[in-house]
Each structure stands twice: as structure tokens, then as C-alpha cells.
Amino acid sequence: MAQIFLVRHGQASFxxxxxxxxxxxxxxxxxxxxxxWAERDMPVARVVTGAMQRHHQTAxxxxxxxxxxxxxxxxxxxxxxxARLNEYNHHExxxxxxxxxxxxxxxxxxxxxxxxxxxxFQQIFAAAITRWISGEYDSEYTETWRAFQLRCAQAxxxxxxxxxxxxxxxxxxxxxxxxxxCQHLLGFDDxxxxxxxxxxxxxxxxxxxxxxxGLGAGSAFLTGLNQYAxxxxxxxxxxxxxx
Length: 243
Description:
six-stranded mixed beta sheet, about 45% helix, Histidine phosphatase family protein, His_Pase_superF_clade-1, Mito_Ser/Thr_phosphatase, hydrolase, hydrolase activity
């Protein structure tokens, strides 16, 4: 059996001009995951990332801690990169539903000025996702919901099809991508996607088992969802984030 570990990136820079970079807390979360795996002598086999900056930064911080190396000593040329692991364009999805939020500063002001702003924003974003998923406005989006689902499933199948003997495959990606892969494996309906996505913790790990031969070969089975014991054990609630 090969094991596939889907790692959601560390906390990104929500509300800033460039969301696609880790916050200092996001890098810390990734280092905690690396130390957690090092303490359990988990081997490093195949490392895969999406093409986004936050994926690479999470991988670098995690692996440096895991291998007890400075980040500058890592050989990223050994990592695989697959742009199909990238997140959907959350900025576009939000702005098509609420045009005022095309400006990230407007989102930040909304969160600061609105009572219970995080909950109110989550409701707006859920409605934006529903609009995107509906298929009624496909011409307005660079990538449709169906196209996103398909590329996430294809990215997973590409890893399952590799015959390099890797037993531990670690994939650094995004929450939406992980949610779409889980939907592909479990078959839950589209309406549950947004809630599933919101529940995923930064640097949370979703584990799959992939039979290499015989019954089930070429498929994967979910054995662990959104695991973040590496953060819980530290008893620091600030380390557990969702953006």
C-alpha cells in the first residue's frame, strides 16, 4: 500500500494585496508539521506541490523542519509540480458575486467594520460558491466548477498512476483542491463542498491509501481527514486557523 498525504497550505495572507504567500504563522504551522513527522520517523519519498507560492512555501518550511535542514539547503528540483493541484480562483468567485470585493482592501474593511464580520463574510462567500457551482453563469468565470472538479480528479489520478514505488507521497496543495478530491472519492453532492472546504485547517493532513496491485489498484481510499494533531498537541489555539 502506498500512502498519500494531502497537506493544506499554512495560513496565507488573507485580506492583503497578495493572498498567495504564507503569513509568519503559516510558516510556523508548516514547521510544526515537519517536526511532528520527524519525531515519528516518517520517511520522505515523493514530494508534490501545486504551482502556487503558498504551496512551495509550506513544502519548504515543513521539509526543512522534517529533515532538520535550513531551507536554503533543500533541493526543490526533486519535488514534482503539478498546476492541476492549484486552488480555484477564490478572488474571482467572490468578486463575481459581490463586485465590491474585487478590491482586497474592501474585504478587510468589511471584516473590521461588520459585527461578527467573519461569520457574515463566510455567508457571503458560501453564496458566491453556490453561484459558481450552479453552472448558470459559467461564461463569467475563467474556470468553471466542472472544470475545477475534473482537473483535481485528474491530478489525483496522475499520482495514483505513477509506478515509481514511492510508499509515502506528500502533496502540498489547497483546501478547495483537497475538498474536490474528497468529493471525487466519497461522492457527496455539490451543495456540501463549501462547508467541507471551510472545515479544513491550515496544514491539516488528509490521508489516502492507494493499493498498488490487485483489488482496488489505481484507486484510493480515505483513511484520515483534516488531521492536525501536530497543532493540537501544542495547546495554542492561535495555531489553528482556516484561511
